[in-house]
Amino acid sequence: MMKKLTLLVLIIILAATGCSGASNNSIPDSNKQTGKNKNKVTISPSAIEDEDKEYGVGETAEINGVKLTLESVEMSYGDRDEDFSSFAPEKGKVFAVCNFLVENDSKEDFDISSLYFNAYEDGFAVDTYIFTDGIGVTSLSGTASPGKKIKGALVYEVSETFEELEIEYRPSLWNDKKVKFIYVNK
């Protein structure tokens, strides 16, 4: 019985391997180079011309026809004043709600997600607060077709007395080039 089961599993694996190999050979050469994401904007490292430039609130970084603007930064205590407070920052902290606008002026779809961002409060790394719906904020994520826009926020739990919040956008997980947005808490 065990030999039959092993033989059956081996046949299934070989059949699956054979099928995947056959389908790769049937893809036209033009599609082999671009793969299934051929209609997505890919931001090359050389697209960031002035990597060391820092952008402030209201300023726009443009990369391969995609414009990224930090429109505003607002402080929120979530539902701290409610009896049962499940969406509130810790004592002595506040949510920094960073509102972004993404405009896709390229000819291909563009994906954006909080995974492409890192943030630093006064030089120390802070995590993205993922329960944005709980505090009434729409998360910055989605796909914008050519000519379309996305609005959303990245939320960070920071000290009430922080001085500077740096938000880095890294368009590719595979290189070190970044666009930096700086918010100074006055």
CATH architecture identity of the largest domain: Sandwich
Provide the helix percentage.
Answer: 10-25%
- Between the first and last Cα atoms, what is the distance in angstroms? 74 Å
What percentage of amino acids are in beta strands?
35-45%
Shape annotation:
globular
By CATH reckoning, the class of the largest domain would read Mainly Beta
* Average pLDDT over all residues: 77
Number of strands: 11
Tally of separate helices: 2
CATH fold-level name of the largest domain? Immunoglobulin-like
Q: Runs with pLDDT <50, length 5+?
A: 1-38, 41-47
List the topology elements.
Layout: H1 2-25, H2 29-34, E1 54-55, E2 60-63, E3 66-76, E4 93-104, E5 110-112, E6 117-121, E7 124-126, E8 142-144, E9 149-159, E10 164-169, E11 179-184
Could you characterize the architecture of this molecule?
The chain has 2 domains: 2-32; 55-184, Sandwich (Immunoglobulin-like), CATH 2.60.40.1240. The strands form 3 sheets. It has a 5-stranded mixed β-sheet, with no helix packed on it. It has a 4-stranded antiparallel β-sheet with strand order 2-3-4-9, with no helix packed on it. It is α+β, with helices and mostly antiparallel strands and 186 residues long. The termini are far apart. It is built from 2 helices and 11 strands, in the order H-H-E-E-E-E-E-E-E-E-E-E-E. The protein has helices at residues 2-25, 29-34; strands at residues 54-55, 60-63, 66-76, 93-104, 110-112, 117-121, 124-126, 142-144, 149-159, 164-169, 179-184.
